[in-house]
């Protein structure tokens, strides 16, 4: 949930709770004043306003218990509180009422929960309400001219509104930005911990496989010396060699990541590497490449994990195509002013909405946990890029990778 939505979610219950207390206090105050000064107060209009406010409050409680609410709804509730307070003040002394400063309360709540546009609307409503209370005062009935005093009260209220709107609103936005940054850092830390755990597990598995593989190699050599023409023995050579190559490749990747080695790679070289990897790992797949000639000289920063990350995406597309018996994958490369965008489209059934957050966390599905996509996302983020997945209008899913151009990366580092 985003922080703006969270603030709105917490603001509405706060407003409804405070209004419940306010209605009780208002009713108690009116009845108490009438008991003490029965001849000086007309309770009929005050009780009518409180009754209308109670009905409105009851409808609001029922409605927002069963329906969602938005920032506009919160602003509407704040404006309603201003209207009810203004009506109560108008029947109990107007701007001279000691509790007229309560008109600032909806502004305070709006400052910590509403965007600037709606907060400005609430503040203007409060200023207009206070101005109407001042204009309705019977100034000529006073023994002295109170015009200057009332103007000073209005200026003081206006300054209070401005201070609350600017100071409280600014502080609220600062706190929200800090909380957002802390939450983002916490998410990145959790993701890093997951990736470190996966890396440790992979290293342990590789280490544990190295010794049995060496033993198998020795046994193969001994058996091959005794039975050099045996077909079963000859068939063992290629798998054992493949295992040795993969272990050697993994050690090279681990060393490259540990030393943080990066190289400059052009778009043309990137496409060639992708084509070679696909021809080697997925020879049955028909890949349609699309890249304008002027984009071939664009350069990016690459490391040892970029190509495996892209191969993971291609493998996901190949598996998705199995559902529709297709073997066609479209790969398109586009160069933007500051980024290079590579999209991989399959012809499968697409991804569910619940799985479109793949890459940010492990997501349980019938096909697995989305670990390959998460590892690809992490590898691309290390290079300053982004990775997202979405559905295409014509069917299938699209994995979109964005990497900064080398010029943009150098400008950011300088």
- Largest sheet strand order: 2-4-5-7-6
Elements, N to C (H/E): HHHHHHHHEHEEHEEHEEH
| Overall mean pLDDT | 78
Going by helix content, strand content and strand pairing, the class is alpha+beta
Residue share in helices? 55-70%
Low-confidence stretches: 408-414
Task: Name the shape in a single word.
Answer: elongated
Q: Can you count the helices?
A: 12
Q: What do these coordinates show?
A:
- The protein is of the alpha+beta class.
- The protein has 3 domains: 3-187, no CATH class; 196-259; 263-413, 2-Layer Sandwich (Heat Shock Protein 90).
- Helices cover 64% and strands 10% of the residues.
- It contains 12 helices and 7 strands.
- The protein is elongated and about 120 Å long.
- Residues 408-414 have low confidence and may be disordered.
How would the blueprint of this fold be written?
Layout (H helix, E strand, L loop, with lengths): L2 H34 L6 H24 L4 H20 L14 H7 L4 H20 L11 H80 L4 H5 L1 H23 L3 E4 H15 L4 E5 L8 E4 L3 H16 L6 E8 L3 E7 L25 H12 L3 E6 L5 E8 L1 H8 L1
Parallel strand pairs: 2-4
Antiparallel strand pairs: 1-3, 4-5, 5-7, 6-7
Helix pairs in contact: 1-2, 1-3, 3-4, 3-5, 4-5, 4-6, 5-6, 6-8, 9-10, 10-11
Could you list some keywords that capture this structure?
alpha+beta, 10% strand, single chain, 414 residues, two-stranded antiparallel ribbon, 3 domains, Heat Shock Protein 90
